[in-house]
Amino acid sequence: MGNTHPGATAPFGMVSACAYSGAYPTGYGLYTKNTEGVPETMFDRIQASGFTHFQQSGTGAIRKYYNYVRVTPMVQPLDDLGQSWALHDETAEAGYYAATLDTGIRSEITVGDKVAVHRYTFPASSSARVVLDLSCGGLATELGRTVPLRAQIESMGHGRAQGTIVMEGVPLSVYVEVDSPGWRQMLWYDRRLIDGGTRLDFDSIRHTNLRPFGMLFRGSARAGQTIEVRMGFSLRGTDQARENLRRECNGESSAFTTVRAKTRAKWREHFEKIQVDGGTSARRTVLGTALYHALIKPCFADDESPFWPNSGPYAFDVSTMWDIYKTQIPLLAAIAPDRAADLLESLIRVCEEEGNFPIGYRMARGADRFFRQASALAHTALADAHALGRAPIDWAWALVHMVDDLRRMYGEDFYEHGVVHPITHTLDLAYGYHCTARVARALGDRRLAADLEERSRGWVNAFDPVTGLLRDSEYYEGGKWNYSFRLLHDMRGRIDLAGGDTAFIGKLDRFFGYGAEPVKQPGRRPPTAEMQAGYALKRFEGLNNEPDMEAPWAYHYAGRPDRTAQVVHSALTWQFGTGPGGLPGNDDSGGLSSWYVWASLGLFPVAGQHLFLVNTPAFERAALQMPEGEFVIETSGHRETPIGVDGLDREPPALFVQSATLNGKPLHATHLSAADVHRGGRLHLRLGPEPSSWGNGIRPPSLSDSPPSEAAR
Question: Region labeled Disordered — which residues (predicted)?
Answer without folding.
Answer: 684-713
